[in-house]
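Workshop exercise sheet. Pairs work together: one partner reads the sequence aloud, the other fills in the structure field after running the prediction. Swap roles for the next sheet.
Pair: D.N. / O.F.
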Amino acid sequence: MKKHLATYLTLCLSALLFTSCWGDEDQELLSPYAMIKSFSIGNIKSSYPAFTSDGRDTTVVRTVDCSSLSFTIDQTNGIIYNNDSLLYSTDLTKIVTSMEVLGAASIYVDSTGTYDYYASTDSTDFTKPRKFRIYSEGGSYHKDYVVSVNAHQVDPELMVWKKEAAIADIVPYGIAELADTMHLFGKNGTKAVVASSPVAGDIFWTTHEITTLPESADLTTVQYYKDALYIIADSTVYTSSDAVNWSPAATIPGAAAIIGASDADMIMVATDKEILGSADGSVFETMCSLPEGFPLYGISIASYPMVHNSDIIRYMVIGYATGEMDGNARVWSRLSTEGKWTEYDNDENPFPCPTLKGLEVIRYDNFFYAFGGAGTAEGETVKAFETFYISKDNGIVWKSYEDFYQKLPGELAGNDNRFIATTDSKNYIWIVTSGEGAATYRGIINRLGFDKK
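Structure field:
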């Protein structure tokens, strides 16, 4: 389908000689310019893994219309590229392109080392950048371009994990990020310690003994709020700006847990009788009585703005109502514009929050991810770290998520040792385990780590 460029140019020159035989008054003026004015591509094919109805692996291929995909044309440097990368599974070997040019277009053919006439009906292999040359109408001038059709080099939906440094002899109880540093709170024997590692780059833990907290400090209550960390000990709320040195911030008789913290609103503490809130972390005022069945043990908390109104904060508390952490996991919610906490009724819900040993719930990618040790989920007995249970409706329905993409580290399957988990400001999930084979696992959904453009 392609004609050699030399033949094409010969025909162009012949046409020019023929035109010159007419009088000057009829001679056509030829443009001296060569330029690609616009560039686009047509339909492409992409594939992705799936399951058949009987559970077998398969691959689904679909055709995607990419005519609206935007391409940047850098005339100064002679490069053309798409800012938004195509899907990881895109077939780049046969792409039909469309160009508006001043002049005549040709494409470089690697096998012959020459430029051949470009035809918009031909497909082009863009698995690597391709060279285009545009000749002016008279053939006296040309301009070269390098065209790239960019596709993701990794599957954007895949959750990838990296096993990193363990912390010897520390049993983890709490974890929180402060000033781009992850702080893990635990016990080395009877001593309270904190191990700290930068959030960015490889994990490198440095450990410090904490001597400014009472021995009775509940390290599971550590939470971040307005550039400081908070922990409850002996009916006192302690605060720290470096995770090592702590000082009293407020006295709250019977303080049991920090149940909410949002920089846009307040920090909340629950006692066995009431819930109190504070904007500055030091002066707490009673908000309401503690609702019956409210979870105060083994809790996970989250706060985030509502989609329809970012000024309204939703608080979530998920955990157990007894110190033995038995019975069903409880899910409670409150909006910052309301004074009342509401428990989600699971009596008629076939997919309630799973009841797992050491249950951890994190808010990630705008959803809730629950996981933990052995327990029950979806009415069945499940093993430790068997799968994620994800809620996409703010904690009402929780379903197991067993697919090709978002999985827990395989090495954790069956591990019933104490662990702790959180997310960081770089969109990573941290899971720190203890006991035999203790390690730090850090994972991310690929697309959440892509640079923003």
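Discussion prompt: Helices lie at 5-20. What would you look at next?
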